């Protein structure tokens, strides 16, 4: 029986992995990595969240890439499936950005997005 390797929920660019490493190494207390999720809010309906992952909980999806761990909250898995996490800097800001095939719209300020679960997107 051939078992195909499971694709990660989220991919990280080299820039994102380097920034995750910097953040984890600079944390005041030991952390497992960064936790990524989505929450209701903003003018387009949802926002991405990034925080310290102090622990890995049951149901969490752990993405290990570039020597770092990013923990995806179980409630966000279907919204992030196939997404890429990048880190961008420009003259006025530096932030994680998500290139997500599940986005259906985003607001003008770039702070929130409209997302469909991957399952619904593929059925449409």
TrEMBL record:
Organism: Blastochloris tepida
Cited Pfam families: Fe-S_biosyn (PF01521)
InterPro entries recorded: ATAP, ATAP_core_dom, Fe-S_cluster_asmbl/transfer, HesB-like_dom_sf
GO cellular component: cytoplasm
GO MF, any single term: 2 iron, 2 sulfur cluster binding
Protein name in UniProt: Core domain-containing protein
Domain Core: 10-111
Alphabetized SUPFAM superfamilies for the sequence: HesB-like domain
Family the entry assigns: Belongs to the HesB/IscA family.
Superkingdom of source: Bacteria
Family annotation (NCBIfam families): iron-sulfur cluster assembly accessory protein
Entry's Gene Ontology BP terms: iron-sulfur cluster assembly
């Amino acid at each position: 029986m051939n078992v195909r390797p499971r694709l990660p929920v989220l991919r990280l660019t080299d820039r994102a992995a380097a920034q995750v490493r910097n953040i984890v190494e600079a944390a005041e207390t030991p952390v497992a990595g960064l936790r990524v999720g989505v929450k209701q809010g903003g003018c387009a309906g949802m926002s991405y969240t990034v925080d310290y992952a102090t622990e890995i909980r049951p149901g969490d999806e752990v993405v290990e890439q570039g020597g770092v761990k990013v923990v995806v909250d179980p409630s966000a898995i279907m919204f992030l499936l196939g997404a890429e996490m990048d880190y961008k800097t420009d003259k006025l800001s530096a932030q994680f950005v998500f290139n997500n095939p599940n986005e259906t719209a985003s607001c003008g300020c770039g702070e929130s997005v409209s997302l469909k679960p991957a399952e619904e997107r593929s059925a449409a």
